[in-house]
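Onboarding guide, step 5: your first structure request.
Type a short instruction followed by the sequence, for example:

Predict the 3D structure of this protein.
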Amino acid sequence: MKKLTLPVLLAMLLLWSCSKSMLYSPSLNLSNKPLKEKELDLQGGAELMPEARTEILGGNKTTFGVSGQVGYGFSDKFSLGVKGWIDAQGREDAARFGVALQGVVTRMTGPTKRLLLVPRIGLAFWGDQITGYGLGSSAVFQKELSDQTAWHFGAGFAWGFRYLNEDTNAAGENKIPMGLGLLGHIGFTWGFAPGLRLSVEATPLYQINTFDKNQQFIVSPQLGLGYTFRREN
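The system replies with structure tokens like these:
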């Protein structure tokens, strides 16, 4: 019996240390003007981030968090950014955070209008443990209303999973712990000073948890402040 004590305790600790729910950031963090070659963009924001397993957290669909992103223009038509976010409410014992790589492919359809393709891939963490993987993409239309302002709308999808092996859910069924999301995007950006901008964004989404067999409609709003190091003409 003594020989079994340590393995049993370790197993219990592993079970209790598993994250109850993963949170993610679906915001796009777009500038009011497209990023050009060799330009650098920075943005920070506060947002209500969706929870992957809302019923585990007492029905809470979102958690307040903060995010930051760094983007770089590799050409006038393609930029790449690294985004990070973290749970600012501290709902669990360990820090929950995530990182994502986001590309933006730009196609101009007019002097002030453009279509954007935004593919993303990311990781979610609970302390030092990777608790989720995700990928997705969005198609967005953006139009400049003036030299300082722009608005956008679009739609996309997201797919996330903890691992691709089957696990047992609360109903005793063996399923892969994963979920899907259908995303909407709408936002407004105001450049109030050279390089500086304020952005307001909302992401309505329909989230389908295939592991726990439930779904929710969630709205994830964000308020952001950004700065772009523009290339001199």
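Each response can be followed by summary notes, for example: Residues 1-17 have pLDDT under 50 and may be disordered.
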